[in-house]
């Protein structure tokens, strides 16, 4: 289990399908389907939360705001800063467990003998984009949501990276990759954070378990001859780290050599010292495993 260590974020406690979290000075209660245990609540902060996300029986849900939580606020990880907001579907604009991958991205880019050209697919609000730019890479940031790309631009500005070499694309990731193949464009690293299910800007559908193998085959055609790494993340139990490891080994390692590592990623729970699983990552690396 690879775990991220933060100053501005922590999982304070977990029980009965919910987690109590601190995002800098904002305390939130959010649902988590993996929290099936029902131990007694161990923190008094359960009663002092700023907001709680309530799921609806018909799907989706809403935020119950107890203390006039700000419309947005800033959270820091090391020298990176991110703008957070309470989104309609329980999210805040960041996945804190991904910090372990941001560290890996920065290390690999800094150790490269050239300026790496990085493709960030399903790029969301751009945390991995910020990490890559901070390390000196060029980045192409692709997401199908115009709103998420706008949010990513906010994070770029927040980190004083307006002059950095980044290109933002609002497009369906599959269609974009196919066009890049036709253009014979190449990348030295590819980061993928695909959703379990999604729709493109023109109604294109994406189902992770159905589409990911073909998609990995496509992205293998975009890798340069001296590519450094590929990161694949998953938040669904239907795509385990072992399955992702197998696919990256068959598609990427067999073609380019190197090694593949995979593991669950998680966050320490302050009240118990145990690790809350938050998904899985598989990483192909040309020269160095994780």
List keywords for this structure.
290 residues, 8-stranded mixed beta sheet, 5-stranded mixed beta sheet
3D architecture notes:
The model has no long low-confidence stretch (mean pLDDT 94). An 8-stranded mixed sheet has the order 1-16-17-15-12-9-10-11. The termini are close together. It has helices spanning 99-111, 127-134, 146-158, 173-182, 208-219, 241-256, and strands at residues 2-4, 9-15, 18-23, 26-31, 51-55, 61-65, 73-77, 80-84, 117-121, 138-143, 166-170, 189-192, 197-199, 205-207, 229-234, 259-268, 275-285. The protein is built from 6 helices and 17 strands. The chain is an alpha/beta fold and 290 residues long. 25% of the residues lie in helices and 33% in strands. It is globular, with a radius of gyration of 19 Å.
């Amino acid at each position: 289990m690879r775990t991220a260590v933060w100053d501005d974020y922590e999982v304070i406690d977990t029980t009965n399908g919910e987690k109590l979290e601190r995002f800098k000075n904002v305390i939130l209660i959010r649902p988590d389907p993996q929290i099936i245990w029902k131990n007694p609540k161990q923190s008094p902060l359960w009663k002092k939360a700023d907001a709680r996300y309530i799921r609806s029986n018909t799907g989706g849900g809403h935020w119950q705001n107890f203390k006039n939580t700000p419309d947005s606020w800033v959270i820091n990880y090391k020298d990176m800063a991110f703008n957070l907001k309470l989104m309609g579907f329980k999210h805040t604009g960041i996945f804190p467990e991904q910090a372990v991958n941001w560290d890996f991205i920065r290390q690999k880019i800094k150790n490269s003998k050239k300026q790496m050209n990085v493709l960030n697919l399903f790029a969301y609000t751009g945390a991995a984009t910020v990490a890559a730019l901070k390390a000196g890479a060029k980045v192409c940031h692709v997401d199908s949501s115009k709103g998420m790309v706008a949010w990513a631009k906010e994070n770029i500005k927040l980190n004083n990276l307006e002059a950095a070499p980044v290109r933002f694309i609002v497009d369906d990731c599959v269609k974009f990759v196919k066009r890049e193949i036709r253009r014979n464009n190449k990348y030295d690293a590819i980061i993928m954070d695909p959703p379990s299910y999604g729709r493109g800007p023109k109604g294109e559908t994406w189902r992770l378990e159905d589409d990911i193998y073909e998609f990995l085959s496509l992205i293998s055609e975009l890798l340069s001859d001296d590519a450094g790494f590929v990161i694949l993340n998953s938040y669904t139990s239907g795509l385990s780290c072992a399955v992702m490891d197998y696919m990256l080994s068959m598609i990427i390692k067999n073609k380019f050599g190197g090694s593949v590592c995979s593991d669950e990623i998680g966050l320490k729970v302050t009240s118990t010292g145990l690790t809350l699983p938050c998904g899985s990552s598989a990483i192909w690396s040309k020269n160095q495993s994780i």
